[in-house]
């Protein structure tokens, strides 16, 4: 495979064939409502993203992934879609979406959009019609309740956000009716993928956006569309805590792969190597690898890496398992440390000690960018943003915050709008306020404050991405561990060495090579040696 080519000006006209651009692409996640606000209403939007594309071009990313901007009542930050082909007025217009895609392509940045196929919004015309007893009912999961009067849910499944995964309907005559399934909020009824109309509709939705030039889809809940036959009880509570460690009758069922294969065939009818990326919480690296078999999707987020603690041995185990599993099906591994659903990694690694968290986050970024495969960055990690852990309850919007016994409900803390400048009502996010309050110290972390400052996190990311592009030994390909002491991760690739000191004491490295980039200052040791401080990662040319 050739090294990452310069992206064509317009991937829609790129010659077909196999550049495999996605195998080692650095893809930047834009959480649209929190990226940049062009009209001062406090919510980020598509023109805001377009205006800030130069930031992404200067960072050196290959592609951007945009979270849902479709027409939606916003019960779950847009993951409750009422019209898959329309842009929500909150975020702009369809023309804004097309202009954003075109402008990104002009800058050599590919565009991936979210598709949400597991559920619609309760406001989707299909679900409205289904509630009115229309034939669209078969496109969702309606079941009679248990108990003498159907007053109990059809089974014991729990919503990922907490509480039962079923809500009882009211018949048009006002009497209590059947229940419907929603693995997430009640406003997100699950679609029934046994109904051919659902398949046909999503084929059409994918084509709609492919025809507008998108380079791929991040597939929301790609592990959820198929439910086990008969929808059996699980017989255990706190099911949300089992996600990612065991197969549940509503997640990671083998049947989902048939859908992904069909989507791959559809993607392959377009030129320019359009990709599918699975958001799949699978219980093991092996099960995750099934999503990226040669005739399925191109990438799957590696959540085992994301959830791994700051521990060299644990990280090495995850890295080995991930590479072995994806390698067994010929796919690249896709590394990720943060996204809009989890506590930012700076805070995961450092708790309230932001300085320690930042040291580790910077080191983790270098580790991740040195590993073979593709990398996803979450907006703001290039600024070293911590989680905002002290948001007042009154401003929280995460639907799981309002339900119990599910996710922790604290996903707002990683969604606080970005600071772009040290001044302004929302630190350059927009001319108005921001839909979640930004901490005052974020002015210091704004992009403008870090621009050109040699030891800033922004400049570290820029440098790492530049080196990654220039060094033929980085990106896709192989790596080999060097023997190393406890607390160290040390590996080589073609002409390249990466050393992470995840331990608590500095480590002397004799002649590691020529320093390319380091997450903290590396001091001279005896002779040609150097001292790598704790919580530091360095890249060397060898
Ligand atoms: C995915 C999204 C998350 C959303 C959920 C339901 O996990 O990343 O934000 O709440 O799906 O659509």
SSE layout:
Layout: E1 26-30, H1 46-51, H2 53-59, E2 63-66, E3 70-71, E4 83-87, H3 94-106, E5 110-115, H4 125-131, E6 142-143, E7 166-170, E8 176-181, H5 196-211, E9 216-219, H6 256-268, E10 275-278, H7 285-289, E11 299-300, H8 303-306, H9 312-328, E12 334-336, H10 345-350, H11 354-370, E13 374-378, H12 442-445, H13 447-450, H14 457-470, E14 480-481, E15 488-493, E16 496-501, E17 507-509, E18 514-518, E19 523-524, E20 530-532, E21 536-541
Parallel strand pairs: 1-2, 1-13, 2-5, 5-9, 9-10, 10-11, 12-13
Antiparallel strand pairs: 3-4, 6-8, 7-8, 14-15, 15-16, 16-21, 17-20, 18-21, 19-20
The structure holds alpha-D-glucopyranose.
Brief description of this entry?
25% of the residues lie in helices and 16% in strands. By secondary structure, the protein is of the alpha/beta class. Helix 6 (256-268) links the parallel strand 9 and strand 10.
């Amino acid at each position: 495979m050739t090294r990452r080519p310069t992206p064509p000006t317009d991937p829609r006209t790129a010659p077909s064939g196999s550049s495999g651009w996605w195998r080692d692409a650095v893809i930047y996640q834009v959480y649209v409502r929190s990226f940049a606000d062009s009209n001062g209403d406090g919510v980020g939007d598509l023109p805001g993203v377009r205006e800030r594309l130069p930031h992404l071009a200067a960072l050196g990313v290959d592609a951007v992934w945009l979270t849902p901007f479709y027409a939606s009542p916003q019960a779950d930050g847009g993951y409750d879609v009422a019209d898959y082909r329309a842009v929500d007025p909150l975020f702009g217009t369809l023309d804004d979406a097309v202009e954003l895609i075109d402008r990104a392509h002009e800058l050599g940045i590919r565009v991936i959009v979210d598709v949400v196929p597991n559920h619609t919004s309760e406001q989707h015309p299909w679900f409205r019609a289904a509630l009115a007893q229309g034939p669209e009912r078969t496109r969702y999961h309606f079941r009679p309740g248990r108990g003498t009067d159907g007053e109990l849910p059809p089974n014991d499944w729990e919503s990922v956000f907490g509480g039962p995964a079923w809500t009882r309907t009211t018949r048009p005559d006002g009497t209590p009716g059947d229940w419907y399934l929603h693995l997430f909020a009640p406003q997100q009824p699950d679609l029934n993928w046994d109904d051919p109309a659902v398949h046909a509709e999503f084929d059409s939705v994918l084509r709609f956006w492919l025809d507008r030039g998108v380079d791929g889809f991040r597939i929301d809940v790609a592990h959820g569309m198929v439910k086990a036959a008969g929808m059996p009880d699980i017989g255990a509570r706190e099911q949300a805590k089992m996600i990612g460690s065991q197969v549940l009758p509503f997640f990671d069922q083998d049947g989902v792969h048939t859908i992904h294969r069909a989507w791959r065939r559809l993607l392959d009818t377009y030129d320019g190597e359009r990709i599918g990326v699975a958001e799949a919480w699978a219980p093991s690296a092996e099960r995750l690898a099934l999503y990226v078999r040669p005739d399925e999707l191109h990438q799957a987020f590696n959540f085992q890496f994301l959830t791994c603690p700051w521990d060299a041995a644990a990280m090495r185990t995850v890295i080995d398992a991930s590479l072995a599993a994806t390698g067994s099906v010929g796919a690249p591994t896709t590394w990720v440390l943060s996204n809009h659903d989890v506590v930012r990694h700076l805070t995961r690694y450092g708790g309230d000690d932001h300085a320690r968290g930042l040291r580790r986050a910077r080191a983790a970024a270098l580790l991740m960018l040195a590993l073979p495969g593709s990398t996803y960055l979450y907006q703001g990690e290039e600024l070293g943003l911590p989680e905002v852990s002290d948001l007042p309850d009154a401003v929280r919007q995460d639907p799981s915050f309002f339900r119990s016994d599910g996710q922790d409900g604290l996903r707002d803390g990683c969604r606080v709008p970005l600071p772009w400048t040290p001044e302004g009502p929302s630190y350059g996010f927009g001319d108005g306020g921001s839909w979640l309050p930004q901490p005052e110290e974020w002015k210091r972390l704004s992009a403008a404050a870090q621009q050109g400052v040699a030891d800033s996190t922004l400049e570290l990311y820029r440098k790492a991405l530049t080196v990654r592009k220039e060094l033929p030994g980085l990106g896709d390909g192989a790596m080999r561990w060097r023997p190393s002491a406890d607390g160290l991760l040390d590996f080589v690739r073609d002409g390249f060495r990466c050393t992470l000191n995840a331990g608590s004491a500095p480590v002397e490295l004799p002649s590691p090579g020529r320093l390319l980039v380091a997450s903290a200052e590396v001091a001279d040791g005896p002779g040609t040696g150097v001292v790598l401080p704790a919580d530091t990662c360095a890249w060397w040319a060898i």
